[in-house]
Amino acid sequence: MIRKFLLIQIVIGFVLCSRFSFALDSLALLATLVGQSDDELYHCASAGDVNGDGFKDIIVGAPQMLMDQGYAYIYFGGAAFDTIPDVRLIGEPFSPGGYSGFGKSVASAGDVNHDGYDDVLVAADFGWNYQVGWRTGKVFLYFGGVEMDSIEDVVFLGSFDDFEYFGTSISCAGDLNDDGYDDVMISAPFYPGGMGTGRVYIYFGGENMNNQADICIQGGEEDCLGNSTAGLGDVNQDGYDDVLVGAPTDGPTQFEGRASIYFGGDPMDTVADVTFWGDSASFRNVGFHIGAAGDVNGDIVPDIMVVGGYEDKRLKIFLGGAIIDTLPHITLGGSHAISKAGDLNKDGFGDIMVSGTIFYGGDPMDSLPDLNLPTGGMEVAHAGDINGDGYDEVLLSTTGDTTANGNVFIFTSRPASSVRGQEDQPVKGFLLSQNYPNPFNSSTAIRFSISSSTLQGRPQVTLRVYNIRGQLMRTLLNEEKECGAYQIVWNGKDNWGRRVASGIYFYQLGAGDFAETKKMLLLK
Hints:
By secondary structure, the protein is mostly beta strands.
């Protein structure tokens, strides 16, 4: 215990001594994931690091695409982040025996099998099945890996009770029993039969994780327990991670609502340890949306976010600690789109994102907005550092309308003066642009330029196309070139004139010790 206390003091001292901040007056748009229709790319979340390359990845869900079959796309992070999905997860066809709405909820699962790769959860919570239930729901777990595939590894099913909406909220619970494996949490807020008692199922991770619930937390009559869930980290500093569960219609009049913390342990019980209650007047339907706040006051203990429901959307933040106060630390103007935002201005305090507004953490923290993005979001999420530049990114999704598609915007906290567009800055005298169009069907143009200000003579320039296995498919250029701008069209054929298959390809510009590679997608 004494050693643990001393270690905590050393860590606190290091953090306090190493804090630095910078003036951040806006977030720069790093990339846009563009939807194909007004219902696409609604849901977004960090995927953790699913391929183990050291970059955080992103997962998005489009539940109403493909005739309501739905899909989820994973985008790998990288130094040169691109907007081509790296893993495509497709839902089951919509039929009386299938599940529609795949991608309605997406989340990182943490590393449930402790193999060094983060895993992801995707829910299809509008399942229809005349044999086992209507709108029962289904959740799919996909293991990460160097070559992550699109085949589900574990499938979770609820009680097969009609209208329980199993999978409404899915989340990584952290390591609740301190066994070294991350655990997952899945809710069914309208169990049983649409009556709204609600259940939250917890599944412990393991080397051979299965789909049998290890813990089941059940609500009271018409509580809607599990309308929202969140893994908090270790909020009471006892060595076990903890979870937060919302029950927005609990209370004497069904307007108060509550959000309850369940402490992890070995064993873990199903009795709420700390409860934040709403009231029927000024803060109603608490638990409609909840979340982990990160560390807003810089004490290295995670904090808690709770939002009122329906028309009352104020956000209240409660501080974690050995003794957790049920009086809010601060109240912010709210929205149902809430997320921790990481430490955007690098001052040592966690920040909060509420729709398109950023609130900086601090000690003390104030309730004044610090940054406003160009648009609000239907969902927001903390992405982590997806391009390895040391600055956090955040996600903001918008649904479309008759004139625009649904998109996910990725904003970076890196100062605007140092953000390089992928097509704006030459490197070592060369500039390689993203191919256009991309994705493409039959042919695509690749542009590059050689700067006269940094190079002498005529460099030998190569432009080659490789498949996803690294095999050379086509040499488009291998000759000396004068300084200037060039465009070369690839017709989708290999060196022998054969048309290549649909899929991801890489094109690489090389000259001497310079080489730059970009990714493109061929669709037929």
